[in-house]
User: Fold this.
Amino acid sequence: MTLSDDALATALLVSRLAADGVDPLKASEFWPLADSPGGMLGSSVDQLVALGLDHVLAERVARLLDRAVGLAFELERYSEAGIATVTVHDEGYPTRLRERLHDKAPPLLHVAGAVDLLSVAGVGIVGSRGVSEEGAEVARQVAEKAASTDLPVVSGGARGVDQLAMTAAHGVGGCVTGVLADSLMRTVSNAATRKAVLGGDTVLCTPYGPEAPFSVGTAMGRNKLIYALSTLTVVIASDEGTGGTWAGAIEALRGGFGRVAVWRGSGEGPGNAPLARRGATPLERVESIDELLAQPDQMVPAPPEPTQQALSFG
Assistant:
């Protein structure tokens, strides 16, 4: 695969592939350098210092940029497996991530499938793995409603609500965007998943290495991408005060990453009502999604924190 100088430099600076013991730049460290990182390729430490980097960072950047051969080998291996690398300097990078997440946006994504779907704002559907059958049915209905409006379902690919929603969307001919916190390489090796990816109606992506295993940290980090890639995200069922669904929704509400709706009806979780008090829009009928989708697709400022009494966990 061929990368532009800026895309190559971005990958070298932020990817953990072939890192050779050097800590890649965090997103917040990369973005101040993001305008034309390709201009730093081949630069010495002194030249990087002359560009304004402090000496410690300059040494780190120089070492990261000096691993092009090893990184190219890894990226080519993944490319042969059907996994592309998309940086902020590539046409397929979803600009919504930068617009909504600012310096929390990942500069690089590993992607399998229809890359162009990443730039189509979808309907996010999230929820607990141990969702009830009533909640599972709501997840299916919301996914089918999204598909009927030609919007992709955006979810995380995990067991429970994520997989139920993605399967339901596929079942009615809809499109799916999956943001994974688990190994993308292993996921696309599954025959059914590979067929969906090759079918042109599915894209799977991860901001982590294509073979990075699942962890609580990767799950927490990918949650914000679901909200940012969606015009509206519906929380089907959440625990209260704990768990990835709760934490992701709270982070999205506080950060203004995107509009958040929460299911208020049969199958909801104990955290759904508290999320509504935190600023999520209550959704009592699946049909009401049409009204929410008709509203402007814009970030809403985070609401003020509720009083301690409202936060009582009882």
